[in-house]
């Protein structure tokens, strides 16, 4: 935002030097309100009221500021409804300032006050005026400052709002009026609406009154021109207009000149709604995909309603076989030539169903459908297994409870009311432990051995706490102090098994809890009646953290829950002092697990892969992969060269491939593919082979023996063992041949015996 003080200084300079203070207005429609500020170029205004747009905009009349004014001139007369002014002052200012806004309504230079306001400004302050009234038409404005008190005024902003651009007597909607198009004087709220695609009366609806059926399309269409393709062809019927979907109703719904077009697909001259335009009547084409099918067409016995009379002549069940030769035209599963199904019906129309399609025992299932015994109504697939020695559900497996697993003559199940129908009847039933032949209903009960030998809960062996009451009568057969003859104690339990707790003890507040139970003996914030399962231990209560200590710390009737994470039945050895599970995240690792050869202690006994080191050499079979029957063979063992055994399990077995007496592990053997190569072999010089394995292929030495005569070389060519030079060497008359012989001797290899 512009600095007010700078603006005041600019106004002050303008006042004394005669420079223009700028302001803007518009001279054309539509009018956009102008925001006029200092130093903005202006045109179309006159400072001297001479009706000439000389661009000087405005000026102060005198530098004394008394009666100072600013004039604005607009060459085009226009109607305005508002003027907004912001003024700034400088210097020490007190008192009031009257601002008068005047306008020239006639252009004669006579000014009338339109609005006036009083205000008080402090030093460097500003004031804003919104002078609104009825719209006025003017070309000449004057703003006059009437009185001051040591104030220097300056115009900062000046805005005009145009009200009626087209001069039709109505303000535009942007200036509070109702004129929806202020550029066209024929458009206003008093205009008459015509069908031309324009909202002349500004009611928000285009061509209202020309859409009698309210289907959204007028009689002149969207282009406002009658008798064109976008016109409503029937303004009395809302189902007819351009662009509508054509339906079969004997009406031109889309106004394209064709009635029910698209509803005679087969081109037989009949639509799907007929000439009456009503569907499902006798004149409709009942099959618009077949040109031979229409009302009145010739009908034949072909399974088609050719004449559209609603009757299909031949195939009542749609199985492809007509009623003239179908033995059951009400069932599509039965027709000549069909395959027989397991349904007890003559599917192929040969006069009778198959023999296995009969339910002889009346159990609802036939032999062809899986009944493995069609002479017994208790035997069929899905039947409930009975204690009768039969495979009642036909799954091919006898019910486990019908099998005498321990061969003691008794089966687990209770005898079926219809008796045993199996191959051999058992001695008895209801064996309570079919894995132990000494336990069955016919066995003799051995008292107090912890086993229900005779499978009878009423015998004394079922008095587990030996308090004289068996489990049928003892409400806690694990506590000898709890039985029907016990004394009721004030302990929160039913000691005498009468289904009452702490009866006979005072209950002063009558809340159903004995007073002795409402105490918190261990002062842990929980009384026994509130769920404290041990009111003598402050670390035990429903809010306590469960510890792995064989105690129900949080009183949830579970001991050490959460310390068997893998659910293998063994507690975590780290968290529990008595825990034995060395890996509580793997259910396959626990003291009862099977030890695997996998490099882990599966059984938690501190030994890894026990039982998998057969030769006890410290390496298991899963590590000592080459031989676990010989304790001299294991990874890292000393491997003896030449014994043909891979003692160190490195996969390398020594051998003498070239049969030269040296093995490939022998340091004297440097090439086990060549029997002439080994330590001590005869070296052949310059053949690129190290026969004696000393790391060097010996070079051949050249020894030249020269004859004592000056004209010939003696000895056996280049193979002499030494050269005796008795006289200066001379090769022929010119020395040429001698030099050739010398060169040949130097370059030809020779074998040297060592």
Task: Characterise this structure.
This protein is mostly loops and 754 residues long. The chain has helices at residues 4-17, 736-747, and strands spanning 69-90, 97-104, 112-119, 126-145, 152-162. The protein has a 5-stranded antiparallel sheet with strand order 3-2-4-1-5. Strand 2 (97-104) and strand 3 form a beta hairpin.
Secondary structure elements and their pairing?
Blueprint: H1 4-17, E1 69-90, E2 97-104, E3 112-119, E4 126-145, E5 152-162, H2 736-747
Antiparallel strand pairs: 1-4, 1-5, 2-3, 2-4
Overall helicity:
under 10%
* Gap from first CA to last CA: 112 Å
Number of continuous helical runs = 2
Average pLDDT over all residues: 73
Largest sheet: 5 strands, antiparallel
Question: What labels would you give this structure?
Answer:
single chain, little secondary structure, five-stranded antiparallel sheet, extended, disordered N terminus, disordered C terminus
In short:
The protein has two helices and five strands; from the N terminus they run αβββββα.
């Amino acid at each position: 935002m512009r600095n007010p003080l700078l603006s005041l200084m600019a106004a002050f300079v303008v006042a004394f030097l005669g420079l223009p203070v700028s302001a803007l207005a518009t001279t054309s429609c539509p009018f956009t309100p102008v925001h006029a500020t200092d130093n903005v170029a202006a045109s179309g205004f006159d400072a001297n009221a001479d009706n000439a747009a000389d661009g000087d905009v405005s000026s102060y009349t005198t530098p004394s500021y008394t009666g100072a004014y600013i004039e604005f001139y607009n060459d085009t007369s226009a109607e305005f409804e508002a003027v907004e002014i912001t003024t700034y002052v400088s210097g020490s200012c007190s008192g009031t300032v009257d601002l008068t806004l005047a306008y020239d309504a006639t252009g004669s230079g006579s000014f009338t006050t339109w609005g006036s306001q009083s205000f008080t400004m402090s030093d460097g302050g500003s004031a804003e005026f919104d002078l609104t009234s009825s719209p006025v038409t003017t070309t000449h404005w004057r703003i006059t400052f009437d009185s001051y008190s040591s104030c220097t005024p300056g115009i900062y902003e000046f805005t005009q709002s145009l009200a009626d651009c087209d001069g039709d007597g109505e303000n535009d909607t942007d200036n509070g009026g109702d004129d929806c198009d202020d550029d066209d004087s024929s458009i206003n709220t008093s205009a008459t609406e015509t069908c031309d695609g324009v909202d002349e009366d500004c009611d928000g609806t285009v061509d209202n009154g020309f859409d009698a059926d309210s289907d959204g399309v007028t009689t002149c269409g969207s282009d406002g021109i009658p008798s064109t393709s976008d016109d409503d062809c029937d303004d009395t019927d809302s189902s007819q207009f351009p662009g509508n979907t054509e339906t079969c109703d004997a009406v031109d719904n889309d106004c394209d000149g064709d009635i029910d077009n698209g509803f005679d697909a087969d081109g037989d001259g009949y639509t799907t709604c007929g000439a009456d335009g009503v569907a499902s009547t006798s004149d409709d084409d009942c099959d618009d995909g077949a040109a031979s099918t229409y009302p009145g067409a010739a009908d034949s016995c072909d399974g088609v309603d050719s004449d559209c009379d609603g009757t299909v002549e031949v195939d009542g069940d749609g199985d492809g076989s007509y009623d003239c030769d179908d033995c059951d035209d009400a069932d599509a599963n039965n027709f000549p030539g069909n395959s027989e199904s397991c349904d007890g019906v003559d599917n192929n129309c040969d006069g009778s169903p198959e023999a296995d399609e009969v339910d002889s025992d009346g159990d609802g299932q036939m032999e062809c459908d899986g009944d493995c015994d069609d002479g017994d109504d208790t035997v069929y697939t899905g039947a409930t297994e009975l204690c009768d020695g039969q495979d009642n559900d036909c799954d091919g497996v006898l019910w486990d409870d019908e099998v005498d697993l321990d061969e003691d003559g008794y089966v687990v199940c209770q005898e079926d009311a219809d008796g045993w129908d199996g191959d051999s009847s058992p001695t008895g039933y209801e064996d309570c432990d079919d894995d132990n032949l000494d336990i069955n209903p016919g066995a003799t009960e051995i008292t107090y051995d912890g086993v229900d030998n005779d499978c009878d809960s009423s015998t004394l062996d079922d008095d587990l706490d030996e308090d004289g009451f068996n489990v049928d009568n003892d409400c806690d057969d694990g506590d000898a102090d709890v039985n029907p003859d016990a004394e009721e104690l004030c302990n929160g339990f039913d000691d005498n098994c009468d289904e009452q707790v702490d009866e006979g003890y005072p209950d002063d507040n009558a809340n159903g809890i004995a007073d002795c139970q409402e105490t918190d003996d261990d002062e842990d914030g929980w009384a026994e009646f509130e769920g404290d399962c041990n009111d003598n231990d402050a670390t035990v209560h429903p809010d306590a953290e469960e510890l792995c200590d064989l105690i129900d710390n949080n009183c949830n009737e579970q001991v050490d829950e959460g310390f068997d994470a893998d659910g293998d039945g063994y507690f975590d050895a780290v968290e529990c002092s008595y825990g034995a599970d060395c890996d509580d995240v793997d259910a396959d690792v626990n003291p009862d697990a099977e030890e695997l050869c996998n490099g882990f202690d599966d059984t938690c006994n501190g030994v890894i892969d026990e039982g998998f080191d057969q030769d006890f050499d410290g390496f298991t079979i899963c590590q000592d992969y080459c031989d676990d029957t010989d304790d001299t063979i294991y990874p890292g063992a000393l491997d003896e060269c030449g014994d043909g055994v891979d003692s160190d399990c490195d996969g390398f077995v020594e051998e003498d491939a070239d049969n030269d007496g040296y093995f490939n592990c022998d340091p004297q053997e440097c090439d086990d593919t060549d029997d002439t190569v080994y330590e001590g072999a005869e070296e052949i010089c310059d053949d690129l082979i190290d026969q004696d394995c000393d790391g060097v292929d010996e070079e051949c030495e050249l020894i030249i023996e020269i004859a004592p005569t000056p004209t010939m070389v003696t000895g056996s060519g280049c193979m002499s063992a030494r050269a005796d030079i008795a006289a200066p060497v001379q090769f022929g008359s010119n020395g040429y041949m001698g030099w050739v012989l010398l060169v040949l001797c130097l370059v030809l290899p020779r074998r040297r015996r060592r």
